[in-house]
Amino acid sequence: MPSKMTDVATRFVDLTLKYKRWDEVKTLPADEVQVLFDTVSAAGFNPKKVAPGKLVGHYRDQDGSNTGETYPINSLCPFKVVSEEDGDNYFATGWLDCALQRAVYGSSRQNEDREKLIEMMAEEVERSVPLEPIQLTLEGDLLREYPPRTLAFGSEYFVKHTRDENDLGSCVGVHMHCNCWIDRRRATSTHDAIVCRGCHLRVLFPKEVKTYGDLRQVFASQRVKVPA
């Protein structure tokens, strides 16, 4: 039985191969729009909907001000991604456009067959899912992954996320909601500490912890209630 990612990738690739000129596509029937929605959902973006529309980004000077010049976010895909807060999700829109371009050009320019494109797309959808935040305290403080890095030049929306099997470094991620960096620091002879640079949250954990998965397991076990 095919995996969920393979099923999503198959439907997406079949849709991309259906149209020969995506630059001329302006709208799609509801069932095909659903394919786009299911694809970005499986990729971890939590969209409210996908809707017709083009987004543009703004070039900035070194001081951060707009230069007045723009660039397209979705140059090929005629649909944009709308977030749960009803705002335009620029990164998800860029990812969807990048995925569409990869499938279309992989077929037309690199002569990749359908099975190869499905395999590639399934891997990309799975890779796009971010690390599930790690709960650090009973009050709900969460560790969010370090900003992911781009996989290749020209594919800035295809990124490599942290995984549970990855080792913890000295800077382990971001304090969700506080939005400040979180560091790992040596605290005692037996424990290290998670320390937020912004609000100064400090949580101890055994120094033997090596990976994000280890850290997740430690804090999850601390939240388990022991019967009286």
Walk me through this protein's architecture.
By secondary structure, the protein is an alpha+beta fold. The chain folds into two domains: 4-128, no CATH class; 134-223, no CATH class. It has helices spanning 4-18, 30-42, 90-108, 114-128, 212-223, and strands at 47-52, 56-60, 66-72, 79-83, 134-135, 142-144, 149-150, 159-160, 171-175, 180-186, 191-196, 202-206. A six-stranded antiparallel beta sheet has the order 5-6-9-10-11-12. A two-stranded antiparallel ribbon has the order 1-4. Strands 2-3 form a two-stranded antiparallel sheet. A hairpin with a 6-residue loop joins β5 (134-135) and β6 (142-144). The termini are far apart.
Rounded Rg: 21 Å
Nearest-integer average pLDDT: 91
End-to-end span in angstroms? Answer: 45 Å
Largest β-sheet summary: 6 strands, antiparallel
Number of helices: 5
Q: Bin the strand percentage.
A: 15-25%
Please state the overall shape, judged from the principal axes of the Cα atoms: elongated
Strand order of the largest sheet: 5-6-9-10-11-12
Low-confidence stretches: none
Which percent range fits the helix content? Answer: 25-40%
Using DSSP, what is the number of strands?
Answer: 12
- What structural class is derived from the secondary structure elements? alpha+beta
What is the element string, with H for helices and E for strands?
HHEEEEHHEEEEEEEEH
Q: Kindly give the count of domains.
A: 2
